[in-house]
Inverse folding.
């Protein structure tokens, strides 16, 4: 019987568990022998594999995080550890690996394939939505919904006091969480790493919306796009207005996955297992124009510039 191992790596994302469940159950349905690896690449190096059956993934479809746990395992960039990981897999007779994670995790999967000959398929799982070859990654929809909840709550209190609020959200070098939350949450100003901000523009936007009778003003800042203290100090200097800041932090990475993330998880898992069965490996799955796709892992990693400038402009127009 052919064997497959599955791991989750990098930052956890809501939907990873739903995806693991779907991978395990679909692979078993297709007569594969399935192993889970604990704590991402660290578990491969440390030989932490668990044999899985359908019951191993019971009751997890609704749970955030990852029951396999995850890790940021920096030594995995060293080929010596990559070979150690491949040796672990081969000791179990496993040639196939499904990696659920972000671009860093995909770099690790590519290294295992290029340097050690392991058959890999990647499933994009990260709240950041920073993989250009796919429209959406697992966890993004849930994270944005969590941010929208925070915007709604902040709006209640800011409105009551005619205040200006700045909410910092995650996304490392990608502004998608900030941008989508801004459009869906009716935010007045969004700052993302892809578009350099102009402090005078932010100040005129605040003044302009106050003049037009707005009772609150929300700024969403993507981490990595600027320093929130610096921005607020400059706003105070230029307008005399104090800005209330909130950092949402890891709250936006946890929580029960949305319907969209659970369904995407199931579709990604089925395509990933099918690819391995068809011996089409060293690929990653994704979704483009509402269709499940797969791409060569190197090609996918080389794709850049996925920022939706049109949506960014719409966010601005709709905030007027
Ligand atoms: P994400 O997968 O969410 O982007 P990271 O960037 O932290 O998260 O990457 C997850 C893990 O992938 C790292 O801790 C490391 O084990 C592995 N990894 C990242 N970059 C590389 C690389 N260039 N070569 C090999 N492994 C890598
Ligand atoms: O990649 C997911 C992510 O949540 C980023 O948005 C954020 O910058 C980073 O992980 C935080 O990482 P950690 O939890 O290791 O501090």
């Amino acid at each position: 019987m052919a064997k497959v191992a599955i791991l989750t790596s990098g930052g956890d994302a809501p939907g990873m568990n739903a995806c693991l469940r779907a991978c395990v159950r679909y692979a078993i349905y297709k007569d594969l022998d399935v192993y889970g690896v604990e704590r991402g690449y660290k578990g491969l190096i440390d030989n932490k594999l668990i044999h899985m059956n359908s019951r191993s993934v019971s009751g997890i479809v609704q749970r955030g995080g990852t029951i396999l746990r995850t890790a940021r395992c920096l030594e995995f960039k060293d080929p010596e550890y990559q070979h150690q990981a491949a040796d672990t897999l081969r000791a179990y007779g496993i040639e196939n690996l499904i990696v659920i994670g972000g671009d860093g995790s995909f770099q690790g999967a590519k290294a295992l394939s290029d340097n050690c000959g392991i058959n890999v398929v990647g499933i994009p799982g990260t709240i950041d939505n920073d993989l250009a070859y796919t429209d959406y990654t697992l966890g993004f929809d849930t994270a944005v919904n969590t941010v929208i909840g925070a915007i709604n709550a902040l709006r209640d209190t800011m409105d009551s006091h005619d205040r200006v609020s700045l909410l910092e959200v995650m996304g490392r070098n990608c502004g998608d969480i900030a941008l989508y939350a801004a459009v869906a949450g009716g935010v007045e100003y969004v700052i993302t790493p892809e578009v350099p901000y102009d402090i005078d523009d932010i100040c005129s936007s605040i003044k302009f919306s106050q003049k037009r009778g707005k009772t609150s003003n929300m700024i969403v800042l993507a981490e990595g796009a600027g320093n929130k203290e610096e921005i607020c100090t400059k706003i105070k200097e230029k307008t005399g207005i104090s800005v209330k800041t909130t950092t949402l932090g890891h709250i936006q990475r946890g929580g029960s996955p949305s319907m969209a993330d659970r369904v995407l998880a199931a579709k990604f898992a089925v395509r990933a297992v099918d690819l391995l069965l068809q011996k089409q490996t060293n690929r990653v799955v994704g979704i483009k124009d509402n269709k499940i796709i797969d791409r060569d892992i190197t090609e996918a990693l080389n794709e850049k510039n996925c920022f939706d400038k049109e949506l960014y402009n719409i966010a601005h127009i709709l905030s007027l």
